[in-house]
UniProtKB/TrEMBL annotation:
Gene3D superfamilies: PucR C-terminal helix-turn-helix domain. InterPro entries: CdaR-like_regulators, CdaR_GGDEF, PucR_C-HTH_dom, PucR_C-HTH_sf. Residues 341-399 form the PucR C-terminal helix-turn-helix domain. This is PucR family transcriptional regulator.
């Protein structure tokens, strides 16, 4: 209310019908100017395939037409959020499905900025007077902001869809490795996730994190990438399975497995042996899962623990691969060395690990026993005097005897 008592005239919030008709007739020309500016100001735009340029053209033409409709509905200065969102998001809803996968969000924002600049130059001259000039200038800025938000929303939705699809695909790959699936289907799925199927891999199994699983598993992935590894993660109920690549040049850290183990849940973590490639990773997964079932038999097991360090416990659970590994790692090299080493080891362990008693039983000097036990350690990597290693060696002797007596099925037929 002024001093004279006359209420001032409110500023218009839209433009007249004649101005709208002129804008509608010029919409195609304005859209063409936007596309020409995109090609001029962004060198990569001209290198896009014709299909993708056509997609951008469709989005641009729809956006300019929607801007005119936006004005006609009185959205220049104030309107409901639903109306704004419907018109600004429509251009991205009708865009070709693959366009968001070909253009990055940064590139799309650059194109929106160019289109907004062109609208700022081309639209205001259509105003019938100074009031409409102000309305059109504000409308371009507001519409450009809404389009930018719509673009960000569209890309966020596409990212969520891709993330959900990748998670399902990742779960299928991990499940395929566990079940022993092979062939082109497994390789194709892994390749779609960016995994190199020919790289060496080992499998880790444990429990999923109890608190904030998505964040902890995300940190596990980031840690692996920082150390130069690729990972595929699958949570299967109460167990977490991780496929960890072994880069040809080695990891950038001395012990990447210990770092990755920090993001597992509580309880033991078992690490399978290195497999040559993704198809062969089933053997690593099989050993790791067998170790996870048997690790309760060794309460002092380190975390993480190698599946091969759980061979005695796995053998007691009837794991044929563990029987075979024990024989191959202990009995076979000692037998090939002449047989005296195997007899000496058996006498030493079964005689209570007493050096003098073993020497008397074999009718040899104690120094001969010491020498033979040292050779056993060199050939097997196990110290007969160490309590844990002596358990492994004794289990290997028993497995070898059972195999020789035919008490074990052919391991390869049962794996």
């Amino acid at each position: 209310m002024t001093a004279s008592g006359i209420r001032p005239r409110a500023a218009p919030t839209t433009v007249c019908a004649a101005t709208l008709r002129r804008l509608e007739r010029a919409a195609g020309e304005v859209a063409g100017a936007c596309l020409a500016a995109m090609a001029t100001r962004q060198s990569w735009f001209a290198r896009l395939p014709a299909e993708q340029r056509a997609g951008v053209q469709l989005v641009t033409q729809t956006g300019v037409a929607n801007f005119v409709a936006w004005l006609g509905q009185g959205h220049a200065v104030g309107a409901t959020a639903t109306g704004r969102g419907r018109l600004t998001a429509e251009a991205f809803r009708i865009a070709p499905r693959g366009l968001a996968q070909k253009l990055t969000l940064r590139q799309t924002v650059e194109l929106v900025r160019i289109a907004t600049d062109v609208l700022e130059q081309r639209v205001p001259p259509f105003a019938a007077d100074d009031c409409e000039l102000q309305v059109l200038s504000e409308a371009v800025l507001r519409f450009g902001r809404e389009v930018a938000f719509a673009a960000a929303t569209a890309y966020a939705g596409a990212a969520e869809d891709r993330g959900a699809w990748d998670a399902r695909l990742e779960a299928l790959v991990v499940d395929g490795v566990v079940r022993g699936d092979g062939g082109d289907e497994l390789v194709s799925r892994a390749s779609a996730l960016g995994w190199n199927p020919s790289t060496a891999v080992r499998v880790l199994v444990g429990t999923p994190p109890l608190e904030n699983p998505p964040e902890r598993l995300g940190e596990l992935r980031r840690s692996a990438v920082r150390m130069g590894h690729s990972v595929l993660v699958g949570a299967q109920g109460s167990r977490l399975i991780v496929l960890l690549s072994e880069p040809p040049g080695g990891s950038t850290q001395a012990d990447p497995i210990s770092r990755i183990a920090e993001d597992f849940g509580p309880g033991p973590i078992v690490v399978g042996p290195v497999a040559a490639d993704l198809i062969a990773a089933h053997a690593s997964a099989r050993d790791a899962l067998a170790g996870l079932r048997a690790v309760a038999g060794w309460p002092q097991a380190p975390r993480p623990v190698a599946a091969d360090d759980l061979l005695p416990e796995r053998a007691m659970l009837g794991d044929p691969a563990a029987h075979r590994r024990l024989v191959e790692a202990v009995v076979t090299p000692l037998t090939e060395a002449g047989g005296e080493l195997l007899r000496t080891l058996a006498a030493y362990l079964e005689g209570g690990a007493a050096l003098e008693a073993c020497a008397r039983a074999l009718f040899v000097h104690p120094n001969t026993v010491r020498y033979r036990l040292r050779r056993v350690s060199e050939l097997t990597g196990r110290l007969p005097m160490d309590p844990r290693d002596s358990l492994v060696l004794r289990a290997a002797l028993i497995a070898g005897r059972l195999q020789s007596a035919g008490g074990l099925d052919e391991p390869s037929a049962r794996v």
